[in-house]
């Protein structure tokens, strides 16, 4: 192990990447003898950058450290020339790596992602007093996504500071704890209408009795936070009185999933994550979606049906704003997960408590009020973009799809409603 006064050598080579480059350089320095203190390598568009931090010594052999430094410098130069690489060598003492406290993951999404926006993000991180340790691209389509591994950050403060950049530049930025907090199993809970699916189910039902426009207006005001959700729901459901229950099956067939919804759920399940749906809509629709997608938990309102006809009433307590947050907590308890390991995704004002309760609350193509209050937002129409916020790359998603052509087995779905 290197001590603070021992000479060290930082060797960086850059150039075209090809098999054998890393092994060739390491083989060369191994002939002289050295302890590897750090090694970093990145390849961008077939261009390699490889850095070695070495403490030059041979176990059990007493040799002047500076002499070994010079010999390492010489063999590295010969190896780099042979490999067609550009060499940079810096001498120092000890392993002067910065302590990696205050770890955070900063994920930036843009379609397109302009250089100016990335520049402002990096400037703000520096002004915060944090350091960018690593940068990697998570996706280049359908959006460009870049992840910064940052140290020395206060997550909540940096999140607020970067939210201003996101708004000004028209990009999405998520800031989350890094390190171990980035790893392990999670619970991901989604809203349904205008989040998992593209429509509002109650409007689809109202279309069957010619009152879609009336209901749509009330829905828009409720989602924007202008009306009490429970009162608005009961008023909207009342317009459905007299409809045959058979219209529910017709609506089920007409539902269109949001682009990327299947990929999101499939990938989360492959990772061993738990997925749940919490909706202010109706379990008669939500339950079928959960079963189709292999989702573990589902909670929504239940319509009263008598003699095969909708009465215009809901049974039990309404799944409102507070009810969604309670469902999130209950699902987490059932899975034995702390709230810090939960992610909530929604678009309306009735999702706000759920988004605030979760470890990460994501406003998906949401109303302005929701975007302002959520931890982060996604404003592209692809639900699987949420995977990038969790540090999962497009390449990893596609690799998993290629390795597993068959769908994963569906779990038992817990269909619950407010008591």
From TrEMBL:
Entry-linked InterPro entries: ACT-like_dom_sf, ACT_dom, HAD-like_SerB, HAD-like_sf, HAD_sf, PSP, PSP_ACT
Segments of this protein annotated with the region Disordered: 400-419
EC number: 3.1.3.3
Catalytic reactions of this protein: O-phospho-L-serine + H2O = L-serine + phosphate; O-phospho-D-serine + H2O = D-serine + phosphate
Pfam families: ACT_6, ACT_PSP_2, HAD
CDD domains for the chain: HAD_PSP
GO BP annotations listed: L-serine biosynthetic process
Cofactor: Mg(2+)
Top-rank taxon, per record: Bacteria
Gene Ontology terms for molecular function: L-phosphoserine phosphatase activity; magnesium ion binding
Residue stretches making up the ACT domain: 10-88
Active site: 191 (nucleophile), 193 (proton donor)
Presence of keyword Amino-acid biosynthesis: yes
The protein's name: phosphoserine phosphatase
Highest classification ranks of the organism: Bacteria, Bacillati, Actinomycetota, Actinomycetes, Micrococcales
């Amino acid at each position: 192990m290197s001590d603070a006064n021992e000479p060290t050598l930082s060797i960086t080579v850059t150039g075209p990447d090809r098999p054998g480059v890393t092994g060739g350089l390491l083989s060369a320095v191994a002939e002289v003898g050295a302890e590897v203190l750090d090694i970093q390598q990145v390849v961008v568009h077939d261009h390699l950058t490889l850095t070695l931090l070495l403490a030059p010594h041979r176990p059990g052999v007493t040799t002047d450290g500076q002499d070994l430094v010079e010999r390492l410098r010489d063999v590295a130069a010969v190896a780099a020339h042979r490999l067609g690489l550009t060499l940079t060598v810096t001498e120092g003492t000890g392993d002067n790596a910065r302590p990696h406290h205050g770890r955070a993951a900063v994920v930036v999404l843009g379609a397109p992602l302009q250089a100016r926006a990335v520049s402002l993000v990096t400037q703000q991180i520096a002004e915060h007093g944090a350091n960018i340790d690593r940068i990697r691209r998570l996706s280049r389509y359908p959006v460009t996504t870049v992840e910064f591994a940052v140290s020395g950050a206060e997550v909540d403060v940096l999140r607020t500071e970067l939210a201003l950049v996101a708004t000004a530049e028209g990009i999405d930025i998520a800031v989350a704890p890094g390190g171990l907090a980035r790893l392990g199993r999670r619970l991901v809970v989604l809203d349904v209408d205008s989040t998992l699916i593209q429509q509002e189910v109650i409007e689809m039902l109202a279309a069957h009795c010619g009152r879609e426009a009336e209901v749509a207006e009330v829905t828009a005001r409720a989602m924007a936070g202008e009306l009490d959700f429970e009162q608005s729901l009961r008023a909207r459901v009342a317009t459905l009185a007299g409809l045959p229950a058979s219209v529910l099956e017709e609506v089920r067939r007409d539902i269109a999933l949001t682009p990327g919804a299947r990929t999101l759920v499939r990938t989360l399940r492959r990772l061993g994550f738990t997925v749940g749906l919490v909706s202010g809509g109706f379990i008669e629709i939500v339950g079928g979606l959960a079963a189709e997608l292999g989702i573990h938990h589902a909670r929504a309102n239940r319509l009263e049906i008598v003699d095969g006809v909708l009465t215009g009433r809901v049974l039990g307590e309404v799944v409102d704003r507070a009810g969604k947050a309670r469902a999130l907590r209950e699902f987490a308890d059932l899975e034995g997960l702390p709230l810090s390991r939960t992610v909530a995704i929604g678009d309306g004002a009735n999702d706000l408590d759920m988004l605030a309760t979760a470890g990460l609350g994501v406003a998906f193509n949401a109303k302005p009020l929701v975007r302002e209050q959520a931890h982060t937002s996604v404003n592209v129409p692809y639900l699987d973009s949420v995977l990038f916020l969790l540090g999962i790359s497009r390449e990893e998603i596609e690799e998993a799809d290629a390795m597993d052509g068959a769908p994963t087995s569906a779990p038992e779905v817990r269909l619950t409603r407010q008591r």
